Amino acid sequence: MANSYRELEGSGANYEEEEAQAWRQPSYSQQSQRFDNRNHNNDMSSNIKRMPDEVWLIPANVDAKKILGDKKANLKRIEASTNTHMDYNEEDSQIEMWGNRDELTEALKQWNTLAQNVLDEEIKRARAKKVKGWAKPEKELTEKQRKKLERRELRAAKEKEMTESQFHPRDNTLYKYNAHFVLPTNNEIPIAQFIGEKEEVLNPIRLDTNCFMWFEPTLNLIKIAGNEMDLVEDATMRVKVLYLKVVASRSIPINVNDKSKRNGWVYYMIDIPEIPRQPYRVRIANIPNWFMPPHDTNTNTAIKIFEPVRDGDVDPCTIAKENDKEYKESVDLETLQRIQIENSEGIRCALLQALGAIHLLDEEIKMRVRFGQICLTDYPKETLWPIDKLNAKVLRSPKLNSKFVTCIATNREQLAGLFEIVSQGEQHWEGSPFREYKIHAIRRPKTRGEPNTDCVFDVKFKNDNKIGLWNVTTAERNVLDINMACLDYVNSWNFSIRTAKRLSNDKFSPQGSFVYKLRLSQNNKLIYTNTEEIKVTSVCEKLKWKFWWGDNYVIEITRYEHWNCDSNKFKAISPGVEIVLGREPSESTFYGVTFYKDTWERDFAENCSLSAGRVPDWHPIDFIEEENSGGVDRLLNEIRNFLEVLQNNVSKAQ
Questions:
Q1: Residue-wise pLDDT tens digits, 164-204
Q2: Which burial class, exposed, middle or buried, applies to 39 when counting CB atoms under 10 A from its CB (0-12, 13-18, 19+)?
Q3: How many other β-carbons are positioned within 10 Å of the β-carbon of residue 270?
Q4: Rounded to the nearest 5°, which phi and psi values hold at 105?
Q5: Which architecture, in CATH terms, is 161-250?
Q6: Which residue of 300, 330, 406, 443 sits 20 to 30 Å from the alpha carbon of 70, by its own alpha carbon?
């Protein structure tokens, strides 16, 4: 007990000594404790950060590096396009985001789309590289399975024999009726362009008529054989139509040497009204400051326009400087009337020629009248011309080149009067305005070594912002361009016919895969995603107001907004990443007016679905004689009347 007491007493003494020692040096102990607490708080504050407003987990079956992109380019792109702040948490394999709810929702959509695109590409590559493994040993067939296999093989053999006999029957004398289509001796068209490399173009005709047909190279003709006279005659006529289609299509001029010039037939004319306001000269003038040049024109190109010069407007020094007495002479009224008659007859012949060339095409056809300005890109050095000299020497020169600009206004306030005029009565189309997108893109070939091809998507969205009607075309071609300079009006007009070949709009094709990834942002701006097969080069958003006008004519007032998606800024974005056009500044925004007849649309719609060798119900002469007894003159009067409406109801840009 004594020892225990002494131990406790000793321990108490030690405790008292330690407490006394601490009391003697309070500053050191308190400072040390405060220093430790401060360090602990600093460590805590350095590790604490604001909790993210939203988190997106990177799917486990997708490589995080492909999601983030090179140097986190995809993360930076989505961060900038959604106006949010993002950080990659490598430890938890997630994207942490801060921002308001609407922007975070948009960011989540973009991350989900990107992940799905990356996963789709990985699955596609895996399927392409997939190698079949060891096959399982075949089981012995049952009697029922053996008979079924024999029937299948017998049916396949018969189908093969029938297919081969369709090309070249063993003995065509066994058939009641025989016919042939002889190719011209001076034929310059390759037979493959006419009937295909393996005569596949003839297959629909073989199927429809149940006739045999094949090409005899030694005789330079196509033979047709069958058991029914009507079907043989029909097949022969359809083969003839196929040949005429190729011949007519090859007649359309193609500018191979000069890419700056348009294909097709191009004409320039001056519109002379019945009662002219006596402009007797035309100046090739500089564009005014407010004028918007073509968005696809080189900035270094000097653009000129036609400008009327009236009595008293010409500086005498300018005339003297030209040093030519013909500039001092006024053009008489008879000359102006002769030019007007030549214009009418020239337009009629040009229409017949162009419509005859496209009559048999199984392509998309569009015929439009557009209002705007003729922008000259190649023109003579002389600036002042009498009308007759300009008509004879300049407008008919093959060196003259131009682009037509459809811009008649840069803001809607300028069109207030026009909207008021065309909206009178029940002329407004139901559902107008319509929002459409024209997307120019490059389509990569299926096989290596083949060149890329240009294609154009026309996409409409439904009211619920889901994909509506859409189509995709390629090989767009200009067939006819008539540029009419109207000296009595601010605007001129252009009459054009264009064709293009339609591609498949199957949902599971590369085109369909691209289209069904399109969507609209909250402010109705397009969001698109480049794929491995489709790369966008430009986008044009169109907002169209449609109105009936006169005798079944349609007036379209369109707001155009262009984006150039082929710049370095867009090229740096990897496929699969969504691009929000609402975050990118557009190159140009303007309003244009288009004029066409409803019957044109209905007639040309038939060509899109023409079978091989079939002929549409319309004929080129129908368009010329359509305007009751007035012909082309009636159409020109309708255009001139609407020009008067534009002149009086569209205010000039300041």
A1: 555 566 555 667 888 989 988 777 788 888 888 888 889 88
A2: exposed
A3: 24
A4: -65, -45
A5: 2-Layer Sandwich (3.30)
A6: 443
Cis status, amide bond into 253, omega within 30 of 0: no
pTM of the predicted protein model? 0.77
> β-pairing, 492-502 with 304-310?
unpaired
> Is pLDDT at 431 greater than 70 in this prediction?
yes
- For residue 107, report the phi and psi dihedrals to the nearest 5 degrees: -65, -40
CA distance 110 to 414: 38
Residues 6 or more apart whose CB falls under 8 angstroms from that of 457 comprise: 437, 438, 439, 441, 470, 471, 472, 511, 514, 515
Q: Is 41 exposed, middle or buried (0-12, 13-18, 19+ CB in 10 A)?
A: exposed
Confidence check: pLDDT of 300 > 50? yes
The residue to which tokens 């299948």 are assigned:
152
Read off φ and ψ for residue 128, nearest 5 degrees: -70, -35
> Which sign does the torsion angle of CA 416, 290, 636, 432 carry?
negative
273 Cβ contact list (under 8 Å, min separation 6): 488, 640
Angle CA 167–171–173, to nearest 5: 115
- DSSP 8-state code for residue 90: T
Name the residue with tokens 């002042």. 384
pLDDT at residue 629 in the model:
47
Helices H, strands E: what count in the chain? 18, 22
User: Which parts of 393-522 are beta strand (E)?
Assistant: 401-405, 434-443, 453-461, 467-486, 492-502, 519-520
- Spatial distance between the Cα atoms of 213 and 203, rounded to a whole number of angstroms: 9
Q: Which of 522, 543, 536, 529 is nearest to 436 (CA)?
A: 543
CB 335 within 8 Å of CB 387: yes
The answer to whether 400 and 379 have CB atoms below 8 angstroms apart is yes
Domain ranges in the chain are 54-119, 161-250, 265-649
| Same fold flag, 54-119 and 161-250 | yes
User: Cα dihedral angle (345, 348, 353, 356), rounded to 10 degrees?
Assistant: -150
**pLDDT of amino acid 465:** 82
Please state which of the four CATH numbers 3.30.420.40, 3.40.980.10, 3.30.1370.10, 3.40.190.10 is assigned to the domain occupying 54-119: 3.30.1370.10
The C-alpha atoms of residue 555 and residue 514 are separated, in whole angstroms, by 32
Token digits for 623?
Answer: 């368009």
Packed helices 333-358 and 229-250: angle between N→C axes, nearest 10 degrees: 130
Compute the distance between CA of residue 573 and CA of residue 464 in angstroms, rounded to an integer.
29
Residue 281, classified by CB atoms within 10 Å of its CB into exposed (0-12), middle (13-18) or buried (19+), is buried
Handedness of CA 606, 607, 608, 611 (dihedral sign): positive
Burial readout 232-245 (b: 16 or more C-beta within 10 A, e: otherwise): bbbbbbbbebbbeb
- The predicted model gives 275-302 an average pLDDT of 73
Q: Is 14's pLDDT higher than 60?
A: no
| Nearest alpha-carbon partner for 467 in 458, 478, 455, 459 | 459
Query: 251 with 258: CB under 8 angstroms?
Result: no
Residue 398, number of CB atoms within 10 A of its CB: 9
Is residue 487 within 8 A of residue 308, CB to CB? The reply is: yes
The pair phi, psi for residue 615, each rounded to 5°, is -120, 135
Which of 282, 300, 303, 299 is CA-nearest to residue 291? Answer: 303
What confidence score (pLDDT) does residue 558 get?
96
In this structure, the strands spanning 364-378 and 401-405 are antiparallel
pLDDT at 518 over 80: yes
> What is the C-alpha separation between 445 and 179, in angstroms, rounded?
40
